[in-house]
Design goal:
Blueprint (H helix, E strand, L loop, with lengths): L9 E7 L8 E7 L17 H14 L2 E7 L1 H7 L1 H14 L7 E5 L10 E4 L7 H24 L5 H4 L5 H10 L10 H4 L6
Parallel strand pairs: 1-4, 4-5
Antiparallel strand pairs: 1-2, 2-3
Length: 195
């Protein structure tokens, strides 16, 4: 009897946190289990927080493999946000417990790696694996920013997650940058003490 055709292991990869003025950029890689489909997967930005949290639990329980990685604020300042995001993506895929046969990356740029791969523009709303990665990365980063809100009170990180809202910019003007702010970003740089 012929052996059943082996299922290709497809990893989806996405990042969250390019735009914020503070905190790491977080990436996730997910290989979904075709035998355990998850309904409701979509671009994490288009889902409510409650729906994202529920899907996160399903993805992390039922996926064949998943991994979260990051690039630090210091790496973002040293490399630039694009290169830091690509580095974090590489770390996420390298961290998977299964080696993928093919990797689908949200966007139009690919890390420098040896995986069979392709970039998919708007992949987070078109490809289930990338949607899943988007959700895992977003929930992870949001939780981290809520925790950082307790360590760095006054900036409002739990609410805006580090994005440049009026509240955040007003807090920066009063408090100055914290150690988790991206010092290379213009709105933060202007509050650095003059050399």
């Amino acid at each position: 009897m012929p052996s059943p055709k082996l299922q290709r292991k497809i990893a989806g990869v996405d990042e969250v946190g390019r735009g914020p003025l503070a905190g790491d950029v977080v990436t996730a890689a997910v290989i979904l289990d075709p035998k355990k489909p998850i309904s409701g997967l979509a671009d994490s930005k288009k889902l409510s927080e409650k729906k994202r949290e529920a899907l996160y639990e399903q993805i992390t329980r039922h996926a064949l493999a998943w991994s979260v990685a990051r690039a630090s604020v210091q790496e973002i300042d040293r490399l630039n946000i694009l290169q830091a995001s690509l580095l974090a993506m590489k770390r996420a895929v390298d961290g998977l417990s299964l080696r993928p046969d093919h990797v689908l990356v949200d966007g139009n740029k690919l890390p420098d790696w040896n995986y069979s791969c392709e970039a998919v523009v708007q992949g987070d709303s078109r490809i289930a694996e990338i949607s899943a990665a988007s959700i895992v990365a977003k929930v992870t980063r949001d939780r981290e920013m809520q925790a950082l809100d307790l360590r760095f009170p006054g900036y409002g990180f739990a609410g805006h997650k580090g994005y440049p809202t009026k509240k955040h910019l007003d807090a920066l003007a009063v408090l100055g940058p914290s150690e988790i702010h991206r010092l290379s970003y213009g709105p933060v740089k202007k509050y650095l003490p003059a050399n």
